[in-house]
């Protein structure tokens, strides 16, 4: 038995969906523990591409149970649309495959409206997706939230909307946005509540029973370490704890239940939205990464900023998450670049920094200090084992593992499920 947490080790978009899909083979339960539909996983199986925003990517495996923990904020409309699309593909034939915790907080129409209005009015834009995630977490922390357990009870839900909507409309008015109608919200969301009743459950208890039965549990995070609300590049972060510790609070399990933490890391680095990015490239190398890597957000469609791999940031992710292994993705994207750079330190006002600065103003002034490695032109997309990779590619992998002080346990050489080299399975399979 083993319980494994999958985290993004960068600014998100590292390819977690594919890795979760692969590791699901050895798991019984797959648990999403934070975030909302501001994240997305793109999966390529055969010739078919599937994009998921809320439902764990393990749902594509027959017989696996997917759980959405209390740490997630859920947009009912998006969630039900995902279910409908999956069923149209012949997936999710049994509704018992999917459980949503009753303590999940619900994204309301006023959350989305406030999110968009604030970003439009702000002189210092965060780069929010406009999905209402941040305002929903605000209400959760402020003890003003509406949970799934409230939504499925029409009388309770109506009372909560009546209490909350006048204040939300005042905020919208202040931001220059139109007010929302109470009855329209009730009519729409009462229908959602009726449909969601089928999936209501107690995720923490479900996980506990699975562990006691000797089953393997896979915990799936959204976004990435550097977007964590407490440990990321604040304020250019998301609104939840995406590090491995968030799996405990977001799913209702104790830290002693976690056996392995795998950090998903691109062979280069990307970021969506605003915020500092020391290794960002505005040259042909950056364009190569963007074009070959198809670097556009699966949720927003926004182009991603691209840059060289940053070991300083990666070591911070190893530390914060207690990472036991690195899953290195999109290695094939680097093919064709004559030389490769890897940032192993920062230069700040004449001083060499080897640890990630917590001060945003310091980080914005940092200049990357690079190690230069030889590139390759060989097509590595068909490699089935580490020995199939050219020596120069293996050197790149060895150096990354050495600098990050964390072993590489998986290498992805293409978008498909079968374009993956596993060096060690965290489930021991």
Rg from Cα: 22 Å
Q: Regions with pLDDT < 50 over 5+ consecutive residues?
A: none
Strand percentage lies at 15-25%
Strand order of the largest sheet: 9-7-5-2-10-1-11-15-19-20
Q: What is the end-to-end distance?
A: 10 Å
Q: Which structural category do the helix and sheet elements fall into?
A: alpha/beta
Please give the CATH class of the largest domain. Alpha Beta
The CATH homologous superfamily of the largest domain is called Adenylosuccinate Synthetase, subunit A, domain 1
CA-based shape: globular
Tell me roughly what share of residues is in helical segments: 25-40%
Beta strand count: 20
CATH topology of the largest domain: Adenylosuccinate Synthetase, Chain A, domain 1
- The overall average pLDDT, rounded, is 93
Number of helices: 13
Please identify, by name, the CATH architecture of the largest domain: 3-Layer(aba) Sandwich
How many strands, which pairing sense, and closed or not: the largest β-sheet?
Answer: 10 strands, mixed
Number of domains: 3
Notes on the structure:
- It is a single chain.
- The protein is α/β, with parallel strands linked by helices and 429 residues long.
- The protein has three domains: 159 residues, Adenylosuccinate Synthetase, Chain A, domain 1 (3-Layer(aba) Sandwich); 92 residues, Adenylosuccinate Synthetase, subunit A, domain 2 (Orthogonal Bundle); 158 residues, Alpha-Beta Complex (Adenylosuccinate Synthetase, Chain A, domain 3), CATH 3.90.170.10.
- The protein is built from 13 helices and 20 strands.
- The strands form five sheets. Strands 9-7-5-2-10-1-11-15-19-20 form a ten-stranded mixed beta sheet, with helices on both faces.
- A hairpin with a 7-residue loop joins strand 19 and strand 20.
- Helix 3 packs across helix 4.
């Amino acid at each position: 038995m083993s319980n494994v947490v999958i985290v993004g080790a960068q600014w998100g978009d590292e390819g977690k969906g594919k890795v979760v899909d692969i590791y699901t083979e050895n798991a019984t339960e797959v648990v999403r523990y934070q975030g909302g539909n501001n994240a997305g996983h793109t999966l390529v199986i055969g010739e078919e591409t599937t994009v998921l925003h809320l439902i764990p990517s393990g749902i594509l495996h027959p017989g696996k149970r997917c759980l959405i923990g209390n740490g997630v904020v859920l947009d009912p409309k998006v969630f039900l649309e995902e279910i409908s699309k999956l069923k149209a593909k012949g997936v999710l034939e049994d509704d018992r495959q999917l459980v949503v915790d009753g303590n999940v907080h619900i994204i309301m129409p006023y959350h989305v409206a406030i999110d968009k209005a604030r970003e439009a009015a702000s002189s210092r834009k965060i780069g929010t997706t406009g999905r209402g995630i941040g305002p929903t977490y605000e209400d959760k922390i402020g003890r003003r939230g509406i949970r799934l357990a409230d939504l499925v009870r029409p009388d309770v839900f109506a009372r909560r909307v009546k209490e909350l909507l006048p204040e939300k409309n005042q905020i919208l008015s202040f931001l220059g946005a139109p007010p929302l109608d109470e009855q329209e919200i009730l009519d729409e969301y009462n229908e959602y509540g009726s449909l969601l009743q089928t999936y209501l459950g107690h995720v923490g208890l479900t996980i506990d029973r699975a562990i006691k039965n000797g089953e393997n549990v896979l915990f799936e995070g959204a976004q990435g370490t550097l977007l964590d609300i407490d440990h990321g590049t604040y304020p250019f972060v998301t609104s939840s704890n995406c590090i491995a510790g968030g799996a405990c609070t977001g799913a209702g399990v104790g830290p002693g239940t976690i056996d392995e933490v795998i950090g998903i890391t691109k062979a280069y680095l990307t970021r969506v939205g605003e915020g500092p990015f020391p290794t960002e490239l505005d040259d042909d190398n950056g364009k190569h990464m963007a074009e070959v890597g198809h670097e556009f957000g699966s949720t927003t469609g926004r182009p991603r900023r691209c840059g060289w791999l940053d070991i300083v940031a990666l070591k911070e992710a190893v530390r914060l998450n207690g990472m036991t292994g690195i899953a290195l993705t999109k290695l094939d994207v680097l093919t064709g670049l004559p030389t490769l750079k890897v940032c192993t330190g920062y230069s700040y006002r004449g001083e060499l920094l080897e640890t990630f600065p917590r001060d945003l103003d310091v980080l914005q002034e940092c200049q990357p200090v690079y190690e230069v490695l030889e590139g390759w032109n060989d097509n590595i997309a068909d490699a089935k084992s580490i020995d199939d990779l050219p020596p120069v590619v293996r050197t790149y992998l060895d150096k990354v593992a050495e600098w990050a002080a964390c072993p590489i346990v998986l290498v992805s050489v293409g978008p498909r499920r079968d374009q993956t080299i596993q060096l060690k399975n965290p489930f021991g399979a």
